[in-house]
């Protein structure tokens, strides 16, 4: 089972992904986590992307596609992949389809968490103090939301056209959202 958790920043993708790792033995592939790990390690890649991420802009397709490609083998040994924060552009989505096809795999389901912009701004105002993430400051967050609306949201018709898109109300409690995602996953495996 290969799942894309789709939605704006702070929609709750990471929270739901972590739960699925526990319950379904899937592997979470979060490009945001991978990039933050690169920054923390002080690697050349980390230094290259640090400023871009702080500003809330997207890093290049090339970089994130390579990060994902390196991790695909381990997802096959487990219960599949949960793509979290990837793909974020049409080029990334197409590259992902190609990489999976080369391995005889595919995306089975895309779950879109729907949360309106105002609720996101409120969530992030609360999270900034705790997360310590420089890109959670209100100015960077606005840029992230703008990038989502301009570059990522246009992927919805791409996946809808493939018949893989399921929408879930992301405004509910963590458990309610989790139950909706489980229902969608069970619908595919059934
Ligand atoms: P969130 O979902 O809360 O916005 P992420 O942890 O997914 O946060 O991403 C944090 C930042 O990392 C993004 O704002 C962007 O700069 C960079 N990033 C993560 N994934 C990608 C991607 N697939 N393409 C381009 N940039 C990315």
UniProtKB/TrEMBL annotation:
InterPro entries per UniProt: Adenylat/UMP-CMP_kin (IPR000850), Adenylat_kinase_CS (IPR033690), P-loop_NTPase (IPR027417)
Ranges in a coiled coil: none
Catalytic activity, as annotated: AMP + ATP = 2 ADP
Notes on the domains: Consists of three domains, a large central CORE domain and two small peripheral domains, NMPbind and LID, which undergo movements during catalysis. The LID domain closes over the site of phosphoryl transfer upon ATP binding. Assembling and dissambling the active center during each catalytic cycle provides an effective means to prevent ATP hydrolysis.
Gene encoding the protein: adk
GO BP: any one term: AMP salvage
Family: Belongs to the adenylate kinase family.
Gene Ontology cellular-component terms listed: cytoplasm
Protein name: Adenylate kinase
Pfam families reported for this sequence: ADK (PF00406)
The entry's keywords: ATP-binding, Cytoplasm, Kinase, Nucleotide biosynthesis, Nucleotide-binding, Transferase
Binding site for AMP: 31, 36, 57-59, 85-88, 92, 133, 144
SUPFAM superfamilies: P-loop containing nucleoside triphosphate hydrolases (SSF52540)
Function in brief: Catalyzes the reversible transfer of the terminal phosphate group between ATP and AMP. Plays an important role in cellular energy homeostasis and in adenine nucleotide metabolism.
Chain positions recorded as ATP binding sites: 10-15, 127, 172
Top-level class of the enzyme under EC nomenclature: transferase
Compartments reported by the entry: Cytoplasm
Subunit structure: Monomer.
Pathway: Purine metabolism; AMP biosynthesis via salvage pathway; AMP from ADP: step 1/1
Organism of this sequence: Phenylobacterium deserti
Statement: the UniProt record of this protein carries the keyword Oxidoreductase: no
Single GO MF annotation: AMP kinase activity
């Amino acid at each position: 089972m290969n799942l894309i958790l789709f939605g704006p920043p702070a929609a709750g993708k990471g929270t739901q992904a972590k739960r699925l790792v526990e319950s379904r033995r899937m592997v979470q592939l979060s490009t945001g986590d991978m990039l933050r790990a690169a920054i923390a390690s002080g690697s050349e890649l980390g230094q290259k992307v640090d400023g871009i991420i702080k500003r809330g802009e997207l890093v290049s397709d090339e970089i994130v596609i390579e990060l994902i490609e390196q991790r695909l083998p381990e997802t096959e040994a487990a219960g599949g992949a949960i793509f979290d924060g990837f793909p974020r552009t049409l080029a990334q989505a197409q590259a992902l389809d190609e990489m999976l096809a080369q391995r005889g795999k595919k995306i089975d389901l895309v779950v879109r968490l729907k949360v309106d912009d105002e609720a996101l701004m409120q969530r992030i105002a609360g999270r900034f103090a705790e997360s310590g993430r420089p890109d959670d400051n209100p100015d960077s967050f606005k840029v992230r939301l703008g990038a989502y609306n301009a570059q990522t949201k246009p992927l919805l018709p791409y996946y809808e056209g493939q018949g893989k898109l399921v929408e879930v109300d992301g405004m509910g409690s963590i458990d309610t959202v989790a139950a909706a995602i489980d229902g969608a996953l069970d619908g595919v495996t059934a």
